[in-house]
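One chain given next:
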Amino acid sequence: QVQLVESGGGLVQPGGSLRLSCAASGSIFRINAMSWHRQAPGKQRELVGRIISAGRTNYVDSVKDRFIISRDNAKNTMYLQMNSLKPEDTAVYYCNANLLLQGLNPGPYDYWGRGTQVTVSS
């Protein structure tokens, strides 16, 4: 019914930048909130930041002033601009959407993407 697809990951040197995208598609009536999470090897998945439909954002302390989340509501797409990247930012980045479906049983429901690898290394 709903798919979330992340893109934009890759290998970048410390201090560099990357921009991730998360596109949601399917029988979506409205997206309430979208968020980015990441999971480094051997660690639990952690919340990176969140954006609600009104555009308000919040971030985990470790990425504040370096990462920026934005959203294009018309395209059901969320972005993560990552600047001043550090080796400790290396992880698989996942997006999540809390949304209402069209038709009966609208929810809300949570959906996850499959993730995109970000590697920060010289």
Remarks:
- The first strand starts at residue 2 and ends at 7.
- Residues 102 and 122 are 46 Å apart (CA to CA).
- The chain has a mean pLDDT of 96.
- The two ends are 40 Å apart (CA to CA).
